[in-house]
Specification:
The complex is a heterotrimer of chains A (about 260), B (about 500) and C (about 240). Chain A has twelve helices and seven strands. Chain A has about 260 residues and is an alpha/beta fold. Chain A has two domains: about 120 residues, Rossmann fold, CATH 3.40.50; about 120 residues, Rossmann fold (3-Layer(aba) Sandwich), CATH 3.40.50. By secondary structure, chain B is of the alpha/beta class. Chain B has a domain of about 70 residues. Chain B is about 50% helix and about 10% strand. Chain B has 25 helices and 13 strands. Chain B has a six-stranded parallel beta sheet with strand order 1-10-7-4-2-3, with helices on both faces. A four-stranded mixed beta sheet of chain B has the order 8-5-6-9. In chain B, a hairpin with a 3-residue loop joins strand 11 and strand 12. Chain C has a six-stranded parallel beta sheet, sandwiched between helices. Chain C has a four-stranded mixed beta sheet with strand order 8-5-6-9. A two-stranded antiparallel sheet of chain C has the order 10-11. Chain C has one domain: 3-Layer(aba) Sandwich (Rossmann fold), CATH 3.40.50.10420. Chain C has six helices and twelve strands. In chain C, helix 3 packs across helix 4. Classes of the chains: A alpha/beta (about 260), B alpha/beta (about 500), C alpha/beta (about 240). Chains B and C meet through helix 2, helix 3, helix 4, strand 1 and helix 9 of B and helix 1, helix 5, strand 9 and strand 10 of C. Strand 9 of chain B pairs antiparallel with strand 9 of chain C.
């Protein structure tokens, strides 16, 4: 099986460790991912901001770049959902492009989903190599995972994977307020939602917040950093991707201390 | 009409949204009520149907209503014929002005028929009558019109406006209600909801007994039977229709269903989606005026079928929007609605459905006005999809938000600077080498500008398009090695033959 | 209404129909599959104890259900009336309107009231309804799944069940349908009577800060007397709903 890593532009720019972790975890389970060099952006910013034709040109690129692969895996829930849910509608129904988009959608998976539903990985039987590899955590799933019926799946998977202290996040269903360019167009609304999310995270007392989308993670991390700059006593926790949480648990990647 | 739901156009959402976020009380009331209703909806459907059957039920309702819209001409004709057979008088209004004019002309004939001038009207809750500004029109004509739904009544006497389809005074607290009761009804000051309700009940009973005209909307029209179906929890519809000699019902043409045989799924979905009840307390079926020998009920029943922008939507690719049954579930589920409240949408319909419906209903004759008047509405969404998940008739609201954003772009109603930046992004994204260079350059640039804490470079006042980002949050650029560089190294190690073997 | 008004009205209706025709034709019909509406059914007609389901569900939406045998109907109604007279009205006499379609049951209830702290109101005085304390009705049928009462204006004074603060409804077990879906599959008066109301609870609002308050415009109390059927009423009830 040829597996490609769909890196996403945002993760390349902001979250390289999440991509490293994805590679390491896949390799741990016997999959050797390739990274097609020409991939750039899937077009989500264009699609979400009223430029569907421009988005279609990038979607077409994606179809070509990933054509030779049996599966396309990404740690970013939102980008995955766009490929799955919205790509096909960018093209005339019944056209070759439409068919290609449907085919790509059928082969594209978010990392946790890929491990759970495609590889059906076995739960590690050994405990974490060190207690630091298995911190107290809570999960916020990217809203776009709703569309591919994976919303709320990360926390149960981590628990099943042997993470011993995964705490329920109150009101997980509510958006963190990121929403792509929405975060800069309506910063007050966006950050009010983000602050509510952070407050819920703080009530869990978890040291680690697992966020299944790069953009949401950057938004929350940025808010938390600003909060602590303004108020030193604000709760401190690290924000990581599910890929990193898994890589930590497997002892493949050293966990960073809380800033 | 009230400026809150009929603002000066074009409408700028930001001032009200900012004010709402700064309003601690509103945050509390709206946040708590919407969360509660949303959780009730989920738990009730889960308990009563289970996930899979609930999904099926939504599909059934979506399909049933879509099919009704696809043959709306046939159903409408059938409904008119059957309703007339029941003795109802059917009118049609192309727009708000015509709908109000019909009401006024019915009122004008009152004196000739009943030997008394129509001056008092009791009105049951109806979003459509808000849309057409009926209360104002009647009041201007000297007909004192009282909202009988408790929430709507409190809003009316307070010169406020509904901010939620189902829970109209979600943004208000009991103290506000208490003050207006003292001022308008002269009752003693009490904040107890039970006492306030009892005061309103007593006041309203006098109105029901002496009103000349009753006004309402309808939730569904059944074509095969000519029946109107009205859902309330308070019972105010039954009293509004039962007392006065004349009743006028205003109904949007999208309310048609094929017949009673299609109704059950909608009744079951409507109440559960809106309030978590199995059915609304009162589901009333009306088939014309009172019959011979009956001692009460309206002597005349007028049904005014209102277009007001609906045929425009029906004939467009957005027909699906007309499936909406006004349950309010998408408002309760929407993170943005929870923060900005209903009045921020500057329209009768707020929340996600309002964001897509309002511009469509207000397109005007040339079908162009809508988005020009409401350019913010489709943008004020994080596209989280909670609305679609909550919608009992599966309207793909996120999809229509995207369509509206595309129209904003083609009509240059969204900022040109944004369009330029996005097109540059596309241009770069088609050139992988340049694209990666650009990302690397901006990472380097950011790391020079930002404060480095060893793991991230943090920027707190970014220039240009990122300024909106750093207004309320910092931008963290990871200091870790770029992924591609790491991967090249990693792959080389991974794919190299083990050293022992090479030796 | 003069001819010109009627012509204008009919022209308006015709113009609307024409606009709708054009709009329908402007878009292709959706390619959606036929649907099976039975998915909406939650409670099956084959369920052997619809009466218990009905009683449970009606209670859970806030109505009070008292079950009794047919020969205990009088005493049950009288007890409910006395309980309300003791608590709810200062003068201890309940002004009561009887709006019962079944003539013999109506007579039985009027007889019963003579042994209650009640005065009988006329059942053709619309304005007088507002002065009543209790409305006693029978029902067209009841729905087990949602715990609902179905009451039409045929043979009953409209709003007798919604205007007074107390509604006392007499339901025979044989009148209970399993599910709302069944209501629309049988011949019923929802679509033929001048008006029919499906009642699922006492009048309710949560408009003020989400606090649930009952008895807004309609009754605060809905008392259901659920009568175990024997003999005569089975046939009568079936005649009503079939």
């Amino acid at each position: 099986m040829r597996v490609a890593l769909f890196t996403t532009c945002l993760a390349e720019a902001l979250a390289p460790r999440s991509l490293q972790a994805t590679v390491l975890v896949l390799e741990h389970f016997g999959v050797t991912p390739e990274v097609p060099a020409e991939q750039t952006c899937c077009g989500q910013p264009l699609l979400s901001n009223g430029l569907p034709e421009e988005a279609a040109t990038l979607a077409r690129r994606m179809c070509v770049i990933f054509r030779a692969f049996d599966a396309v895996v990404t740690p970013s829930g939102s980008c995955c959902a766009i490929v799955r849910e919205r790509f096909a509608d960018l093209f005339v129904h019944g056209s070759d492009d439409h068919r290609d988009a449907l085919a790509l959608a059928a082969r594209t998976f978010e990392l946790v989903e890929f491990l759970e539903t495609q590889l059906r990985v076995a739960v590690p039987t050994t405990s974490a190599p060190s207690p630091e590899c298995d911190p107290s955590m809570t999960c916020h799933d990217a809203c776009h995972l709703r569309g591919i019926h994976r919303h709320g799946c990360t926390a149960p998977f981590l628990t099943a994977f042997g993470c011993r202290d995964v705490r329920p996040l109150p009101d997980m269903a509510q958006c963190c307020g990121f929403g792509g360019m929405f975060s800069t167009q309506f910063p007050e609304v966006s950050s009010a939602l983000g602050q509510e999310k952070l407050a819920h995270v703080a009530t869990t007392g978890a040291s680690t917040l697992v966020v299944s989308d790069t953009g949401c993670g950057a938004h929350l991390a940025g808010l938390a950093h600003r909060q602590r700059a303004d108020n030193n006593s604000a709760a401190a926790f690290r924000i990581i991707s599910p890929a990193e949480a898994l890589a930590h648990r497997l002892g493949l990647l050293a966990m960073e201390s809380i800033a | 009409m009230n400026e809150l739901i009929a603002p000066t156009l074009p409408y700028d959402m930001m001032p009200r949204a900012r004010a709402a976020i700064a309003d601690v009380h509103l945050q509390q009331f709206v946040g708590r009520a919407t969360h509660l209703k949303d959780e009730q909806r989920k738990s009730v459907f889960g308990a009563d149907f289970g996930h899979d059957d609930y999904e099926l039920l939504r599909s059934v309702a979506a399909t049933t209503k879509q099919q009704a819209l696809d043959q709306l001409d046939v159903l409408l004709e059938q409904f008119i014929e059957r309703a007339q057979a029941h003795g109802s008088i059917v009118h049609a209004a192309v727009d708000a002005a015509q709908a109000c004019a019909i009401a006024l002309s019915i009122a004008a004939q009152h004196e000739a028929k009943y030997a008394v001038k129509a001056t008092r009207c009791v009105k049951s809750k109806s979003m459509l009558t808000e849309e057409i500004g009926l209360v104002d029109a009647l009041t201007r004509a000297g007909i004192e019109t009282v909202e009988t739904d408790l929430g709507e009544f409190i809003l009316q006497i307070d010169n406020d406006a509904p901010s939620h389809i189902v829970t109209p005074m979600i943004h208000k607290d009991r103290a506000a209600a208490a003050r207006s009761f003292v001022r308008v009804l002269g009752s003693r000051y009490t904040e107890d909801p039970e006492e306030l309700t009892a005061i309103a009940r007593a006041h309203m009973r006098g109105l029901y007994r002496h009103a000349h005209i009753g006004v309402s909307g309808a939730n569904f029209l059944l074509a095969e039977e000519g029946t109107a179906v009205i859902c309330t929890n308070e019972g105010n519809f039954d009293l509004s229709v039962g007392g006065p000699p004349v009743h006028i019902m205003f109904v949007g043409i999208e309310k048609l269903l094929r017949g009673a045989r299609d109704l059950a799924p909608f009744l079951k979905l409507l109440a559960r989606s809106g309030t978590g009840q199995p059915l609304t307390v009162y589901t009333s079926f009306v088939n014309g005026p009172r019959r011979a020998g009956e001692s009460n009920g309206p002597k005349e029943l007028h049904i005014v079928l209102v277009d007001a922008g609906r045929t425009g939507i029906l004939g467009s690719s957005k027909r699906e929007l007309l499936r909406c049954i006004r349950c309010g579930a998408c408002l309760n589920a929407c993170p943005v609605y929870r923060k900005v409240g209903g009045h921020s949408y500057g329209s009768v319909y707020s929340g996600p459905i309002g964001a897509v419906l309002t511009p469509e209903l207000n397109r005007g004759a040339a079908r162009a006005e809508g988005l020009a008047n409401y350019p913010d509405l489709p943008r004020a969404s994080s596209l989280c999809g909670a609305c679609l998940e909550a919608c009992p008739v599966k309207i793909d609201i996120p999809k229509f938000l995207l369509h509206a954003r595309a129209e904003l772009r083609t009509r240059t109603l969204s900022p040109a600077s944004e369009s330029r930046a996005l097109r540059l992004w596309r241009w770069l994204a088609q050139r992988p080498m340049l694209f990666r260079l650009a990302i690397r350059a901006s990472r380097l640039h950011a790391r020079m500008l930002g404060q480095n804490d060893g793991r991230h470079a943090w920027i707190s006042n970014a220039p240009g398009p990122a300024a909106g980002w750093t207004q309320s949050r910092d931008l963290g650029i990871a200091s870790a090695q770029p992924f591609r560089a790491w991967f090249v190294q990693h792959a080389a190690e991974r794919d190299a033959p083990p050293k022992e073997a090479a030796r | 209404m003069n001819d010109a008004t009627i012509r204008a009205r009919d022209a308006g209706v015709a113009a609307l129909l024409e606009r709708v025709r054009r709009a329908v034709a402007a878009q292709p019909a959706s390619a959606m599959n036929a649907v099976d509406l039975s998915i909406a059914r939650r409670t099956s007609a084959s369920n052997s104890d619809l009466a218990t389901i009905f009683a449970t569900r009606a209670s859970s939406v806030g109505m009070r259900v008292t079950r009794c045998a047919s020969d205990a109907l009088h005493t049950t109604v009288a007890a409910i009336m006395r309980a309300h007279a003791d608590t709810s009205t200062p003068n201890q006499t309940l002004r009561t309107v009887v709006a019962i379609r079944d003539a013999s049951l109506a007579q039985r209830m009027r007889d019963c009231l003579s042994s209650c702290p009640a005065t009988l109101a006329r059942d053709d005085d619309a304005d007088g309804l507002f002065d009543c304390d209790v409305g006693i009705t029978d029902v067209d049928c009841a729905i087990a799944d949602s715990g609902s009462l179905v009451i039409s204006t045929i043979g009953r004074m409209r709003n007798a069940w919604i205007t007074p603060p107390i509604h006392l409804a007499i339901v025979f077990e044989s009148q209970i349908l399993a599910d709302l879906v069944d209501l629309f599959e049988i011949r019923n008066e929802c679509t033929t009577a001048a008006s029919t109301t499906i009642i699922t609870g006492p009048s309710k609002t949560a408009d003020i800060e989400g606090v649930l308050v009952t008895g807004v415009h309609g009754p605060a109390y809905v008392e259901i007397v659920l009568v175990a059927d024997e003999s005569k009423h089975v046939a009568d009830a079936h005649a009503l709903i079939r």
